[in-house]
Amino acid sequence: ARVFIFTTGKDHFVRLYGVTxxxxxxxxxxxxxxxxxxxxYWSTKNFAQNWGWVxxxxxxxxxxxxxxxxxxxxxxxxxxxxPHDDEPxxxxxxxxxxxxxxxxxxxACLGGLISFFIIPKTQSWWQGxxxxx
Length: 133
Fold this sequence. Notes:
The chain contains 4 helices and no strands. 80% of the residues lie in helices and 0% in strands.
């Protein structure tokens, strides 16, 4: 969805609302399903500890991604300075955030690829668990 907005080369911020809604719904669905996944995968014995790690992971990733996005924005601000002389490190337009969004899209694809390779391993693990019951 992010790549769709920035590949057109136009400054249509209306599309940003739609993409934001899609990302928000996906994030909400994730937080609804994660407690069930945790309790099924690791059982409820150490649920609080596992839930704590699941809560910390997005916060740590958000911090790291914000650092990368800020760095990429600063690089674009140097290449495409603002037309106003009073704001030298300000960048205006889609080009300022394009690299950051491509980075985020690449990381999302990498996460999907990792998930694709993890699924067969978890299926064999589940078959082992089911054989004990």
